[in-house]
Amino acid sequence: MPAIETNRAGDRDRKVRATEIMAAAGARELRDGEVAIVGLGLPEVASVLARRTHAPRLATLLEIGVMNSAPKDTPVGLADSRTFYRSTCWSGFLDVMGMNLHRGVVDTGFLGALELDRYGNINTTLLKKESGKVRYVNGSAGGNDVASLAKRVIVIMRHEKRKLPLAVAHLTSPGFVGGRSREDLHLRGGGPSRVITDMGVLGFDEKTHAVSLLSLHPGVRLEDLVANTGFPLQIPKEVPRTPLPTDEELRLLREEIDPKGTHLK
Amino acid sequence: MAEAIGKIRSVAEVVRTIPSGSHIGLGGFSIARNPIVLVHELIRQQTGDLTISQGVAGLDTDLLVGAGLVKRLIMGGGSLDRFGPVHCVNRARETKSVQCEDYTSLSVCFRYLAGALGLSYIPIKSLLGSEILERLEAGTGTKDVKRAECPFTGEEYVLLRALTPDVSVIHVQIADPEGNCQINGPRWENEEQAKAGRRLIVVAEEIVSTEYIQRSPERTIIPGHRVEAVVHQPFGGVPTAVFGCYDYDAEHLRMYVDYAREPERVKDYLSKFVFGCRNHWEYLEKLGGLQRMEEIKADRILGY
To answer: Which CATH fold would you assign to the domain A18-257?
Structure first.
């Protein structure tokens, strides 16, 4: 996913960036002893943070065929040799996405998205301009497989109206398509459970499967979040604030996990 | 190892055996282990009308599309990681100059696996509910995907037709003259892709003796009896990374992405770095020669 350039959320006193709040919020969604398959960028950063804090026994799988790597230098992406360093296993798609993800043992899929709609459907294939012109981008890679098969899916992305439309321009990876249940869609995985943006944390209503607001990041006004969302949001009466990263989480993120700010810009 | 000829062939000789119109299973992943030396030779010999299949397309496929040699793409996705998108592939899709069938990483891998096992199809639980499946069903992929119920459980699956490239091309760190190949680092769908191929050509960074392979046979991913020819080319994947051998050439990749943005400039890139070089050694010289290769050479501990 692209680097977050604007930092709307944050804490000026401690100079906490929105991306740092996102990484910490993402890490907190990962539980010790579980199995996660993570995409490049902030998901990777969040999974490393989780393993360095509360979830040392979180198994972290990368689609390319890497398990539990502990990069010394910040990688530019999944295919970067920097993500292979200090791994516990090197295999390939068939092992990671076939005999783990397809087998049904992956608890969390952690993805980025170009667009995400009110039912958690993800687009990573193309963008349609207002003129109707289509611009192609990366496509699915393992995204559709993860969204189809992981027990729950966490998405991390920038909060913008055009990136959170009523319906995605191309349905690359299914959420609750048309508000339908996952059983109805014949999908084994449980579907999207959290969307972590630079403005707040979103979840999904158990009955309607539509996006709801769970918490607002510190420094963000509710009306700004609503104005930057392209679909109607379920909003609770009292909106909690997303906890800020702890001093230790910030230290790890800044000094050890991404010291050059490749993903935390 | 001048005496150890075995299956070792020059890249020019090998590419002459690949006719235009072939389906090539291409072994790169984004900016990792791309068989650039063979791709450049395909461009020099203008081997066209190609079908390319690949899990995650990288520089290898982008160069072939940019050179106008590809008519059909079967792929799970594509990018050059943080360096940028596969501009030539994306542009060819926008102008519809290439017929592109979108899959996912796992579904491409499963299609190769079926091919490698000699099965005619394989069921999968991805793709359901997505526009990827709808587009395949409505387009040229319609003959390769089908929804069906499991005859035992009644569960709904997507059936994928086996994928058997005319030739698979895989880039490896080491091979012996008979083609026993050992891959260092993750292998994405290389093993299934290699074994699904009707023919198999490998590009090896280093040729080792069979005795060396025999010291760690558990690391042999592709056995020699499946390999038709071995191309020996040190730094054969530059500017993509080959784990344990060298890092990606970030400077060159950034420059490539800049060229690839404009179709006219793609031509400039190809004339300078492909047509302007008689062989891979001349290309490496243009990139800075021995000094540059020494700079990107991998640290023995880090592997990059």
So the answer is: Glutaconate Coenzyme A-transferase (3.40.1080)
